[in-house]
Amino acid sequence: MSNLRKALKRMIWVLGLGKIIGISRRCKYAFIDAIGTVFFAILRILKKLPKKKTSDGNFFKNILIVRNDRVGDLILSTPALRAVRNKYFNSTIHLLVSKYAEDLVVNNSSIDKILTDEKEILNTKYDLAISLSAGYKQNELLFKSRAERRIGFSGFGGGFFLTEEIKDERRKNPQHEIDFSLSAAQKVGADINNKKLEISITSAGERFAEKFYENNNLKGMIIVVHPGARQENLRWSRKGFAELSDLLSNRFKVTIILTGTLEEKEIIDAIAKQMKNKPLTCLDLKLTELVSILKRASMYIGNITGPMHIACAVNIPVVAITGLFNSLDDIRYWGPRCDNYEIVRKQGLESIIVDDVYQAVLRLAGKNVA
Predict the structure, then answer these.
(1) How does the average pLDDT of the chain come out, rounded?
(2) Could you tell me the pLDDT band of residue 49, with boundaries at 50, 70 and 90?
(3) Would you state the pLDDT for residue 3?
(4) For strand 62-66 and strand 221-226, is the pairing parallel, antiparallel, or unpaired?
(5) Which of 23, 100, 199, 344 is deepest in the core (most CB within 10 A)?
(6) Which of 186, 212, 247 represents a domain boundary (last residue)?
């Protein structure tokens, strides 16, 4: 089923059908929301549902925040988590995340309890529920939480589940995911000026990274290269990554570490095979292990994907490669946010040559690369 889904996505991308499918999807959401709005209005008239509660409120005993999607999304939501905590420092805050991404926030000081099973939201009576992303499923979860005040985004269905909707206008007015999630925190009166990313570092992750660095006698400049991404149109060429890695290894005292998921093994193996200077490889790491590996590295080079946001969160220099313009996946929404970064961007990844990325590395590293 997974391979079929990938094949369909590939076909949609090749045929340029994304925009048409996007429009039809939005029409479907609008239709569902229209029906849902009428149905919920009838239920309120019949007093089967309470009236919408939208008052600010000075205190909420229990707060639920939902961010149960991908790695980068969760990392970019940490400023919003902190903003809600600072506003309601005496409240108990639960965060619903995907099981896979749990390690990224496992010791986040803004959260009292992490939930990874949707059924867990039924165990607590929430006063306020907030979704930090747009989606029918997320809005439905807020409704299931039984919170009197439910704040989420319209545009991707399920707006009728909410007591307060935030209009998703990112297609008209591009907005970085950090700011998008912060707009939900702003809705409850939180201060949204602090946009610093946070990430959890665990003792298990630290032990793994220390052992890996020690066993491989890693010293000097260490560059982590992440050539994978969830979609093919987000990935720079394998040949490009191989040639760039060899160029850096030949000209400077640089150790290259290739990272990827188990599903990306074929990509990693193909790049390593093309390289003359064999790299170290880290496959199928737990996220907390990847965090600690990146924390010790000198630089990240790769596509705009989850590990890039991890690199930003541990604040190492980042070289991000992208060929996207006018897309909901481009840098306006998902670009790197850290102290030192370079973005290598041309229309179409195939137009990006090795020297483009190499020069970005030199600009970012300066004298430290020598």
Answers:
(1) 91
(2) confident
(3) 60
(4) unpaired
(5) 199
(6) 186
> Residues near 107 by Cβ (< 8 Å), separated by ≥ 6?
200, 201, 202
pLDDT in tens, 19-33: 665 567 667 777 777
Whole-prediction pTM value? 0.89
CA distances from 263 to 100, 228, 259 (A): 15, 9, 11
- Does residue 13 lie within any of the structural domains? no
pLDDT value of residue 10:
56
CA-nearest of 293, 260, 332, 309 to 71 is 309
CATH number, domain with residue 360: 3.40.50.2000
Tell me whether residue 191 is in a domain.
no
What residues contact 15, with CB distance under 8 A and at least 6 apart? none
DSSP string for 272-308: HHH-SSPPEEEES--HHHHHHHHHT-SEEEEESSHHH
CA pair distance 250, 254, nearest whole angstrom: 8
Residues 6+ apart with CB under 8 A from 80: 65, 132, 178, 181, 182, 184, 185, 190, 192
pLDDT tens for each residue of 198-219: 999 999 999 999 999 999 999 9
Helices 2-15 and 18-45 cross at an angle (nearest 10°) of 110
Q: How far is CA 348 from CA 26, 97, 325, 344, in A?
A: 27, 33, 8, 11
Query: How many percent of the chain have pLDDT more than 90?
Result: 78
**Same domain, yes or no, for 220 and 174?**
no
Together in a domain, 255 and 172: no
- On whether the CB atoms of residues 165 and 143 are closer than 8 A, the answer is no
DSSP assignment of 105-141, as one string?
GTT-TT-SEEE-SGGGGGGS--SEEEESS--HHHHHH
Q: How many domains does the chain have?
A: 2
**What is the pLDDT at residue 28?**
76
